[in-house]
């Protein structure tokens, strides 16, 4: 019996995407001095489709797309869904009249999701970045002895996550989800002080943090369809009968009035009067019976959803490597002298409590509006027992999607999905009494392919940081391409 309905090109496509996505874990898409702090630049959990709407989606769910902003959304999956994405960026750095730019692109994520029991249990797994570190900065100063000192800082690496998410729906309109991630990766940082006088001892400290532990987050999704009432078949029957009786009453009332006005008669025709009374009694009976019948309820065009996500304070196991050394550079030859060496010292990195709230409003298959608010308590963060001067962060995101006519029309432009979004937030950094904020405006397109598959495009422009107090402002352009492939898997065919 055949259970997998796959063609060779589709399997090859899946395998290629999987291979390249797995190798994406070693790539860093960040080149920012702000990634020096904490655990680096935190990466959005949004896929390309959600990024086109400002990264919002805590209260969003779909039959044909994976949404990792809230694991509870996976119970809505109808088909087996494979998602893969690639992203790139171009960033301009400004500080004290100086400018520099950098750019790059890398594979971003892959995910495979499928319904185990439609509307009851859905699951997904995949790989995506959790944080990235990439910076190389330096500066000069002159000491009291008039010797020039070069201070340099560099860092690279990041934390990746392999995740397995499940969602269950215990009742209609209610879904709960759990995301189990395994965090892994290495962040290496190097700090140096080098002197222009070769008789001075230079110093170098190289730190490495190797992460490897499980991390948990969860979510709840509540969905409510608007209801409108309409007359049931029974009500329609009584209304038809009442119209017929009402017409007959009008006719017989006229006849009775004419009969009473006849000068040859002393009163109205008793036969007509009896029929009139019978019709009036029947009318009253039908009206009473109609009142006892309830209107029929049916879903309306509008629906609303509320999403909640959270992760608790977590101690993530990690190991620390450190090499502290002094050295002289004479005639281009380096003479090192180790001062401190730590090899794979076990410890923990305390990740903060976080939560998010989301609201999504839909109008049929055409309009979707959504907004999110999330916050993380980074004041509780510590790394190998050492606190860091980080602040609590928050982010506000909103977006909309418009599909003119859906998939039932021949016009391709009418089947495309048009997206727009905005986000603004305060990061966990406060440097030189300046809070580091970030904002961006995004747009996106959904290009439908065969069945319910699609290509998703997104682009955003934004800014991070400030020029105040000799800090750095980053102006960036980010873009990405995502592919969603849908199909039925594990389906028995009638032929062997």
Describe the structure.
This protein folds into 2 domains: 8-228 and 300-487, Outer membrane protein transport protein (OMPP1/FadL/TodX) (Porin, Beta Barrel), CATH 2.40.160; 232-294. It is built from 5 helices and 19 strands. The protein has helices at residues 8-23, 48-51, 233-261, 270-291, 412-415; strands spanning 41-42, 80-95, 98-117, 121-142, 148-171, 174-195, 202-230, 296-311, 314-330, 333-351, 354-363, 367-376, 382-383, 386-387, 393-402, 417-431, 434-448, 454-465, 473-487. A 14-stranded antiparallel beta barrel has the order 2-3-4-5-6-7-8-11-12-15-16-17-18-19. The radius of gyration is 34 Å and the shape is elongated. Mean pLDDT is 85; it is low at 1-9 and 19-27.
Salient structural properties:
19 strands, 496 residues, alpha+beta, 14-stranded antiparallel β-barrel, 56% strand, 5 helices, Porin
């Amino acid at each position: 019996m055949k259970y997998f309905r796959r063609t060779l090109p589709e399997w090859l496509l899946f395998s290629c995407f999987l291979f390249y996505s797995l190798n994406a874990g070693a790539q860093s898409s960040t080149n920012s001095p702000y990634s020096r702090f904490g655990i680096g630049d935190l990466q959005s959990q949004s896929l390309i489709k959600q990024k086109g709407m400002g990264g919002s989606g805590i209260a969003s769910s779909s039959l044909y797309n994976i949404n990792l902003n809230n694991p509870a959304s996976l119970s809505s999956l109808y088909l087996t869904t494979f998602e893969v994405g690639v992203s790139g960026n171009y960033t301009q750095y400004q500080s004290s009249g100086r400018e520099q730019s950098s750019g790059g692109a890398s594979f971003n994520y892959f995910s495979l999701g499928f319904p185990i029991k439609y509307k009851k249990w859905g699951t997904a797994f995949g790989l995506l970045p959790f944080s990235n570190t990439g910076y190389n900065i330096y500066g000069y100063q002159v000491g009291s002895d008039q010797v020039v000192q070069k201070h340099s800082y560099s860092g690279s690496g990041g934390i990746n996550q392999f995740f397995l998410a499940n969602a269950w729906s215990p009742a209609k309109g209610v879904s709960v989800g759990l995301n189990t991630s395994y965090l892994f990766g290495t962040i290496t940082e190097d700090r140096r002080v080098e002197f222009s006088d070769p008789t001075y001892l230079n110093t170098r400290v190289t730190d490495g943090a190797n992460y490897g532990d499980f991390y948990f987050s969860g979510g709840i999704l509540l969905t409510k369809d608007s209801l409108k009432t309409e007359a049931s078949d029974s009500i329609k029957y009584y209304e038809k009968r009442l119209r017929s009786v009402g017409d007959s009453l009008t006719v017989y009332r006229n006849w009775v009035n004419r009969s009473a006005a006849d000068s040859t008669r002393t009163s109205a025709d008793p036969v007509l009067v009896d029929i009139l009374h019978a019709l009036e009694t029947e009318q009253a009976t039908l009206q009473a019976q109609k009142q006892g019948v309830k209107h029929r309820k049916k879903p309306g065009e509008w629906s609303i959803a509320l999403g909640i996500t959270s992760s608790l304070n977590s101690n993530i196991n990690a190991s620390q490597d450190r090499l502290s050394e002094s050295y002289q550079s004479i005639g281009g030859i380096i003479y090192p002298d180790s001062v401190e060496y730590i090899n794979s010292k076990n410890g923990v990195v305390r990740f903060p409590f976080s939560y998010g709230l989301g609201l999504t409003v839909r109008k049929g298959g055409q309009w979707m509006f959504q907004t999110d608010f999330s916050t993380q308590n980074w004041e509780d963060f510590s790394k190998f027992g050492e606190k860091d001067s980080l602040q609590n962060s928050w982010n506000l995101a909103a977006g909309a999607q418009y599909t003119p006519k859906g998939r039932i029309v021949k016009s391709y432009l009418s089947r495309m999905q048009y997206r727009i979004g905005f986000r603004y937030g305060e990061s966990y950094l406060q440097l030189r009494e300046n809070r580091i904020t970030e904002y961006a405006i995004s747009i996106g397109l959904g290009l439908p392919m065969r069945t319910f598959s699609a290509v998703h495009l997104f682009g955003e422009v934004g800014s991070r940081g400030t020029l105040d107090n000799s800090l750095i402002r980053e102006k960036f352009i980010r873009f990405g391409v995502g592919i969603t492939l849908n199909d039925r898997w594990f389906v028995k065919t009638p032929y062997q």
